[in-house]
């Protein structure tokens, strides 16, 4: 079997990282893959390291109509059994059109839970033979918008439980980020975009610091709200307690050193950072939004709070910070959850099963 994968993301996190896991797992099972990505994309570099055939094709968004011709030509040369579209930014709709023109069974991965107009759903999702959602919550959004149940299936995202593990690294946070003082460290790992809820965490921070003055908050990630979040930190006089750490490629070393991971997102398909935290044995406080309840077992591996409820957010953080034995118990539960529900092997098997169903049909 040969599968052509299309991933438009340039940075290696979120969906692009899942594509790498899938390519590696399919390769181990004897499936031939070809990756289509923009020139210079990190996902292409990692795929080449795995020995995957990579084709760099410019993709400039939803209106890049020449992309249709470029991808049709590639499919006619490669003659794949399956076309798998992994991202938006033009790859989904334009790629679906290409699949129809080339007569190749087409799979779309959907990683976000934001609703789309029903008229658009009625037209767009006819292009795909299968839609694979990364959470049951996203699948339910599609069903409510009119996608047929047999077309949409849930295959959870995966986390590398070998790379992300509860291995403590002495002084890692101090050496990498300059944190000192011995106080608890609360991390948030997310793109700096509105729906991730950074403002909610900053609003809750004073209540946490009132109970735990030595606590530190570390915001990992980059995005368009960087300057706005910096201004909010200064406006609340939190400069001594909140650190913006940017994007880190040493996260597997730093994450196990955190006491809590917080994720107050307003919308979330599933949350890869939550899976990484679970694999590292770090309890989570997160919003009860989108697919997050599938990644966090409330009162078992962490706490879920209503989106935007800063008082509940602060209370949950303070509860965990005040009880080391509770954090330790939740840490073990979180690691077990990651191993059982979000392994790379399960994710690869789920995708491959859908390829085989389409090929047989």
Automatic annotation (TrEMBL):
Start and end residues of each Glycosyl transferase family domain: 176-335
Statement: the UniProt record of this protein carries the keyword Transferase: yes
The entry's keywords: Transferase
GO MF annotation list: hexosyltransferase activity
Domain called Glycosyltransferase subfamily 4-like N-terminal: residue spans: 15-162
UniProt xrefs under Pfam families: Glyco_transf_4, Glycos_transf_1
Stored InterPro entries: Glyco_trans_1 (IPR001296), Glyco_trans_4-like_N (IPR028098), Glycosyltransferase_grp1 (IPR050194)
Protein name: Glycosyl transferase
Organism: Sediminicurvatus halobius
């Amino acid at each position: 079997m040969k599968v052509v994968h299309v991933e438009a993301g340039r940075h290696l996190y979120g969906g692009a990282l899942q594509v790498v896991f899938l390519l590696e797992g399919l390769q181990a099972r004897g499936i031939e893959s070809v990756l289509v990505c923009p020139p210079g994309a990190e996902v292409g570099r990692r795929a080449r390291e795995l020995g995957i055939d990579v084709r760099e094709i410019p993709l400039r968004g939803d209106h890049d109509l020449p992309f249709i011709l470029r991808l049709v030509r590639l499919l006619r040369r490669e003659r794949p059994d399956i076309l798998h579209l992994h991202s938006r930014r033009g790859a989904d709709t334009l790629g679906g059109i290409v699949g129809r023109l080339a007569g190749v069974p087409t799979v779309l991965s959907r990683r976000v839970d934001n609703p789309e107009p029903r008229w658009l759903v009625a037209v767009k999702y006819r292009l795909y033979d299968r839609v694979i959602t990364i959470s049951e919550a996203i699948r339910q959004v599609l069903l409510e918008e009119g996608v047929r149940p047999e077309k949409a299936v849930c295959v959870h995202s995966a986390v590398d439980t070998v790379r992300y593990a509860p291995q403590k690294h002495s002084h890692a946070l101090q050496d990498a980020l300059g944190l000192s003082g011995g106080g608890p460290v609360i991390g948030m790992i997310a793109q700096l975009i509105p729906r991730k809820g950074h403002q909610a965490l900053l609003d809750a921070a004073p209540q946490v610091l009132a109970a735990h003055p030595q606590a530190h908050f570390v915001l990992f990630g980059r995005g368009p709200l960087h300057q706005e979040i910096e201004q909010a930190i200064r406006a609340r006089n939190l400069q001594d307690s909140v650190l913006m750490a940017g994007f880190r490629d040493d996260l597997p070393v730093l994450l196990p050193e955190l006491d809590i991971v917080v994720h107050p997102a307003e919308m979330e398909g599933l949350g890869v950072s939550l899976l990484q935290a679970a694999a590292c044995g770090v309890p989570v406080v997160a919003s009860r939004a989108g697919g997050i309840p599938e990644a966090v077992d409330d009162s078992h591996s962490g706490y879920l709070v209503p989106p935007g409820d800063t008082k509940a957010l602060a209370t949950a953080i303070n509860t965990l910070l005040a009880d080391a034995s509770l954090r330790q118990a939740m840490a073990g539960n979180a690691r077990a959850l990651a191993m059982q529900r979000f392994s790379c092997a399960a994710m690869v098997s789920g995708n491959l099963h859908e390829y085989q169903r389409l090929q047989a049909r």
